[in-house]
Amino acid sequence: MEESKNAYGKVSKLRVVAGENGGRTYLKELSFTAPFKVMSPFKLPDGGIRVMPLMASAGILEGDRQKIYLETESCAAMECVSQSHEKIHKMKNGSAGRETCLRVGKNAVLLYRPLPVIPFAESAFRGHTEIWLEDLSSSLFYQEIVSCGRAARGERFDYRHYLSLVEAWRHGKLIYRENNRFYPDLNAMEDVGMFEGYSYLANLLFFHEDASGCIGKIRRLIEEQQEISGGVTLTAESDVAVRILGSQVQKLQQICDRIYAIVKEKTGLGTI
């Protein structure tokens, strides 16, 4: 990512590392630069922690460059959530970008579950997420929800572009790659194969030793819903990818929460 200046004069960085001691997870490393801040972590009943980064700004602005690094060391368990929906503001000619690195150690758990992203009209954003899993015992749940824009204001797919590349490695081997490139001026965003008339797209990824036991129940859950459309894929490495389209963000988030509950039930991922 280019090191162009943003409103804070440099690349904005957030680094959070969770360690484990005596069956309890603790915050081992924490550093950040403006506009990032981090609340004191919440302790969870089963020994994990929940971390909530804060943004001391109105959202993502033109020229912003961000780098986020989240790691759970061996046997640690951490959930990362956001404070509110993330707004990508209108931009004149430039763009904004973010690099995210998620690293999970042996027998460790990392949940990355930010709230939805809202790209305003004429905004441009490029995101790149790298996921590094030490081995088969490393578990990660990843969630990304993208809006069509401020639909209530008549802004449906009025942004210039929204790019999101996700790559995952296990044992240093590339096991998953998803490259979403949304250019409303070039793509028929309302058509089949894109948003199909819906307002939100949710991408869920679950990496685990063998996540195949989740497939049937997740599919049934999606098929039972009247206001969403989606599908579930089992990858060659027995990980799970879910994509869901919906028009009510609360409904979509509830479905994502229920899918996470299925993941915990089927895999024994009960640390958080």
Automatic annotation (TrEMBL):
Keywords: Chaperone, Cytoplasm, Nickel insertion. Its main location: cytoplasm. One of its GO terms (molecular function) is nickel cation binding. InterPro entries: UreD. Transmembrane segments: none annotated. It holds the Pfam family UreD. It comes from the Bacteria. It is found in: Cytoplasm. The keyword Cytoplasm applies. GO terms for cellular component: cytoplasm. The keyword Chaperone applies. UreD, UreF and UreG form a complex that acts as a GTP-hydrolysis-dependent molecular chaperone, activating the urease apoprotein by helping to assemble the nickel containing metallocenter of UreC. The UreE protein probably delivers the nickel. Required for maturation of urease via the functional incorporation of the urease nickel metallocenter. Belongs to the UreD family. This is Urease accessory protein UreD. The gene is ureD.
